[in-house]
């Protein structure tokens, strides 16, 4: 393992790609598993938790790691694909050790763990060799002094706390995409998950909720007080919020809808009024809508919104007033590829596709799939009997509803025991 650095800090490993001997990426690092035997025995690194296809979590023993270099982890490729389960004597570094209260024995300084360093011992085992600790902030200083010390100089590594914070765990999740952050949160112990949820802002929590399995969404929403739960639902896309509220008891759903902004709640109620697995139930009521006098420059400015998914940004819809759904009559749709070829001052209404057949809200999921496939679309408008735009169905909306309930977990369960 000559290519492997002498010491590696664990927080820098999270999210790194894992490759097999052929150079094919097989997953990403999600956490490190250690055995905290006692304060007098150096913690041994047992392996990595890696996420592979289907969001399956597998255990990669350190004996299978051949190199850690260039922002990559290389393995022998001989991996057991059985789903990872944490054993009683094991501890997750990111999920459980970060933010643990410890004391530096020689100085008596107390603080929290924000990272740990691991390296190979002479017997080739990987062990925890350093602990990075941050003191509480003092006075006007928001961040306290940091220390990197030998593991043997730290008291409290093996002690588990009911009131453990989540500051540094949240920092480790900051740069992850919502789907990746959701995957980490899904596997956290209950008390750590609660601390993380409390520390996420409403917008970030909404993004993460949209990526979690249905049962996790319900469980997390029930941890929040009514006001915050309503705020988070408002930050979610209306179709995802409608799906989540539909999984709640009627009493809880009514309470949350009443606490939401009236306009946001109205969009959710409208989506919930359509039969399940229809275009109306799965559509997004907030596509890019423009008036007939909008220019190509106006359209391009709207689709630059970083909050739009690629499929929503692929089409703009030109409608008569009002421009809030349900709009005035839909005049047509502008394909972003066509708009990019036009002068910025051109009116969008002059280059719209008015031959694009819209969907009706009662169209079945099979009809929606056939429509998108037939016309090679990533999105399509949904209109009422008067031709007013109600929303747009995107290919990602379709996939979310075509895949079986709990597909994020089922993909892993179907192949448990392989390898």
From TrEMBL:
Record-linked CDD domains: CBS_pair_Mg_transporter
Nucleotide-binding recorded as keyword: no
InterPro entries listed in its UniProt record: CBS_dom, CBS_dom_sf, Mg_transptr_MgtE_intracell_dom, MgtE_N_sf, MgtE_transporter, PRC-brl_dom, PRC_barrel-like_sf, SH3_actinomycetes
Pfam families (alphabetical): CBS (PF00571), MgtE_N (PF03448), PRC (PF05239), SH3_actinomycetes (PF26205)
Entry keywords, A to Z: CBS domain
Residue ranges of every copy of the CBS domain listed in the record: 352-410
Superkingdom per UniProt: Bacteria
Name recorded for this polypeptide: CBS domain-containing protein
């Amino acid at each position: 393992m000559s290519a492997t650095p002498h010491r590696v800090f664990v927080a820098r490993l999270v999210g790194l790609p894992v490759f097999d001997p052929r150079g094919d990426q097989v997953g990403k690092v999600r956490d490190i598993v250690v055995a905290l035997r006692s304060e007098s025995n150096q913690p041994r690194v047992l392996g990595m938790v890696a996420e592979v296809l289907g969001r399956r979590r597998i255990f990669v023993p350190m004996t299978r790691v051949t190199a850690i270099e260039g922002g990559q982890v290389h393995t022998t490729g001989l991996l057991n694909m059985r789903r990872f389960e944490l054993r009683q004597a094991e501890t997750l570094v990111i999920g459980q050790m970060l933010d643990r209260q410890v004391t530096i024995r020689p100085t008596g300084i107390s603080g929290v763990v924000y990272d740990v360093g691991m390296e190979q011992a002479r017997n080739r085992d990987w062990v925890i060799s350093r602990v990075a600790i941050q003191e509480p902030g003092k006075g006007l200083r928001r961040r306290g002094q940091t220390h990197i010390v030998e593991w043997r100089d730290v008291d409290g590594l093996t002690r588990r706390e009911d009131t453990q914070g989540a500051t540094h765990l949240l920092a480790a999740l900051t740069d992850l995409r919502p789907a990746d952050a959701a995957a980490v949160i899904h596997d956290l112990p209950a008390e750590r998950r609660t601390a993380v949820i409390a520390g996420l802002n409403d917008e970030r929590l909404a993004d993460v909720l949209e990526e979690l399995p249905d049962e996790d969404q319900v469980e997390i929403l029930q941890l929040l007080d009514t006001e915050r739960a309503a705020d988070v639902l408002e930050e979610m896309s209306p179709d995802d919020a409608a799906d989540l509220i539909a999984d709640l008891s009627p009493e809880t759903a009514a309470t949350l809808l009443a606490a939401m902004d009236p306009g946001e709640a109205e969009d959710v109620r409208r989506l919930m009024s359509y039969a399940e697995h229809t275009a109306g139930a799965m559509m997004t009521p907030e596509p890019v809508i423009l008036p007939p006098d909008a220019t190509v420059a106006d359209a391009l400015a709207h689709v630059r919104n970083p909050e739009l998914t690629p499929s929503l940004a692929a089409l703009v819809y030109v409608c008569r007033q009002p421009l809030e759904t349900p709009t005035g009559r839909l005049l047509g749709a502008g394909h972003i590829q066509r708009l990019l070829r036009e002068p910025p001052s051109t009116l969008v209404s002059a280059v719209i596709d008015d031959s694009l057949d819209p969907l009706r809200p009662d169209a079945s999921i099979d009809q929606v799939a056939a429509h998108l496939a037939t016309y090679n679309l990533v999105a399509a408008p949904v209109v009422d009997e008067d031709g007013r735009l109600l929303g747009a169905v995107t290919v990602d909306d379709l996939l979310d509803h075509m895949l079986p309930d709990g597909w994020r977990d089922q993909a892993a369960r179907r192949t448990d025991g392989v390898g």
